[in-house]
Write a structure and sequence with these properties.
With about 290 residues, the chain is of the alpha/beta class. It has a seven-stranded mixed beta sheet, sandwiched between helices. A hairpin with a 2-residue loop joins strand 3 and strand 4. Helix 1 crosses helix 12 and helix 5 packs across helix 6. The longest helix is centred in the middle third of the chain and has 19 residues. The protein is globular and about 50 Å long. About 40% of the residues are buried.
Length: about 290
C-alpha cells in the first residue's frame, strides 16, 4: 500500500476454515457502521459470492454479471496481458491504464453501504507473472476509494489463493473470525503461517497488521465452547480477542436470506452494536485515524 495514502482503512476478513460465519460478521459490521452514517464498501473476493448474495437480490446479481459489473470485470481484460517486461512505476501505470478508471462495478446495497459483487468466473484468474494480484490495490488507489469510504471491507475466501493475496496487497489490516472448535483452531494456525510468510516479503509500512479475533457462533451454555475460547486465548495470548462474542442463533441465517441484518433480530442487536463499536475503537487505536 502506498505510504502516502491518507487513510489506512482497508480491512480483510479472513480465516482458512470455511463455515465460521466470516461473511456474516463482515457484512453485519458493515451494515451496522452504515447505519451510523459511516460510508462502507464491501468487496466480495470469494468466488462463492456469499457477501454479494447477502447484500443483493438474485436479479441484481444476475444483471451485474451479465453486464460485466462484478469484481471479475477488473481482471477479465488484464489477466492475459503480459507485464513481465515492466517494473516499478512503469508496471503500476500500465495496470492503471487497463483498469480504465471505472467505478461502474460498485453497486449500492443500501444507504451508506456499497458492494463490489463477487463472480464465480474469478476461478479463471491465476497468477502467472506476479502482477495480477496488484490489480485490486491499483483499482482502489486509482479511484481514491480510501478517501471516498470510511472503511473498505474485503471478504476473503478460506483458501490460500490469488484472491487472498490480492486482498492482502490492498489491505492495511485483517480481522480473523473463528468458531470456537477444533477445526477452526486449525484454520487459525494455517492462517497465521500464511500471514507470516506474506509479511516476511513486505516492507515495514506494507505489512498487514491484525485488528483482532472475533468469536462467532458461540454457545455460552456449553463448557466446550468456554474451554475452547480459554485455550485459544492461551495459545494466541498476544492477539487481541474482541470482548463481544456473537451467539450461534439460527435467526441470523434465516434473516440473511431475506437480506436483513443482525440489528433487525431480537437478541442480536446489542451484540452487533457492541462489536461494531469495539471494531472502530480498535481501528482508531491501531491506525491513528478517526
Amino acid at each position: 500500500m502506498d505510504s502516502n495514502t491518507s487513510k489506512k482503512n482497508v480491512i480483510s476478513f479472513v480465516n482458512m476454515k470455511g463455515g465460521v460465519g466470516k461473511t456474516t460478521i463482515c457484512v453485519n459490521i458493515a451494515a451496522q457502521l452504515a447505519k451510523t452514517n459511516k460510508k462502507i464498501l464491501v468487496i466480495d473476493m470469494d468466488p462463492q459470492m456469499n457477501a454479494s448474495q447477502y447484500l443483493l437480490s438474485p436479479d441484481i446479481i444476475e444483471s451485474l454479471i451479465n453486464n460485466h459489473h462484478t469484481i471479475y470485470n477488473l481482471y477479465e481484460d488484464t489477466f492475459n496481458e503480459n507485464f513481465n517486461y515492466l517494473t516499478g512505476n512503469e508496471l503500476h501505470e500500465d495496470l492503471l491504464e487497463h483498469i480504465d478508471d471505472n467505478c461502474s462495478i460498485i453497486q449500492q446495497a443500501k444507504e451508506n453501504l456499497d458492494v463490489i459483487c463477487g463472480d464465480l468466473r474469478m476461478t479463471n484468474v491465476d497468477e502467472k507473472d506476479g502482477t495480477i494480484s496488484d490489480i485490486l490495490n491499483a483499482f482502489i488507489e486509482e479511484n481514491n476509494l480510501q478517501d471516498t469510504y470510511n472503511f473498505i471491507f474485503i471478504d476473503c475466501p478460506p483458501t490460500q489463493s490469488i484472491y487472498t493475496i490480492s486482498a492482502f496487497k490492498a489491505s492495511n489490516f485483517y480481522l480473523i473470525v473463528i468458531k470456537p472448535d477444533y477445526l477452526s483452531t486449525i484454520g487459525l494456525s494455517l492462517f497465521q503461517k500464511m500471514i507470516s510468510s506474506f509479511n516476511s516479503r513486505r516492507g515495514k509500512k506494507e505489512k498487514l497488521n491484525c485488528l483482532g479475533i472475533v468469536i462467532n457462533l458461540y454457545q455460552p451454555q456449553t463448557d466446550y465452547h468456554k474451554d475452547k475460547v480459554s485455550e485459544l486465548k492461551s495459545i494466541y495470548k498476544f492477539s487481541n480477542f474482541f470482548t463481544t462474542k456473537i451467539a450461534n442463533k439460527s435467526a441470523i441465517a434465516k434473516y440473511s436470506e431475506e437480506h436483513k441484518f443482525m440489528y433487525d433480530i431480537n437478541g442480536c442487536k446489542r451484540q452487533i452494536i457492541n462489536l461494531a463499536k469495539e471494531f472502530t475503537d480498535e481501528y482508531k487505536r491501531r491506525s491513528g485515524n478517526e
